[in-house]
Specification:
By secondary structure, the protein is α+β, with helices and mostly antiparallel strands. It has helices at 17-35, 67-70, 74-82, 125-132, and strands at 41-47, 50-56, 86-93, 99-105, 110-114. The chain is 29% helix and 25% strand. The chain starts with 16 loop residues before the first helix and ends in a 5-residue tail after the last helix.
Length: 137
């Protein structure tokens, strides 16, 4: 007898446009309420069943920045940092409000499946942001 087992890190459902805008609004509202000042803006990318959440921060570059050493002007360096995202997480849609999550691990530059802070395999987009907000500290 073969039994079906739900795997939160495979498959998923293509995210409808109406859900995309809801996720952006929900996560941005949550982030602004709980992490105001930790980021300058959030970025959202959607591909099929995935939503990728990134944060952008305002860089702190000292006035004594050595342009000759780095081969770039201080202003250009600041702009480069402003436009470089911090990848927070990838969430996978399963319909309704059922999502799984994966952290972006910088050590191997891949999204690694993870559990939510509740210990559950699925949760909400806000819970995924909360778990990945550790990268904003």
């Amino acid at each position: 007898m073969c039994a079906w087992h739900f795997d939160p890190h495979h498959g998923g459902t293509k995210i409808p446009d109406s859900i995309k805008s809801q996720v952006q609004q929900r996560v941005t509202g949550y982030a602004n309420k709980h992490y105001s000042g930790k980021f300058s803006r959030l970025g959202f990318r959607f591909k099929s069943q995935f939503c990728y959440i990134d944060a952008y921060t305002e860089p702190s570059v000292p006035e004594s920045f050595d342009e000759e050493r780095f081969g770039i002007s201080r202003e250009d360096y600041i702009e480069r940092l402003r436009t470089t995202p911090t990848h927070l997480c990838r969430i996978r849609y399963f319909g309704g409000d059922k999502w799984s999550m994966a952290f972006f691990t910088y050590s191997n530059e891949k999204y690694t499946p993870s559990y939510f802070v509740t210990g559950q395999e699925t949760g909400t987009p806000e819970e995924a942001f909360e778990a990945s907000a550790i990268y904003l500290n």
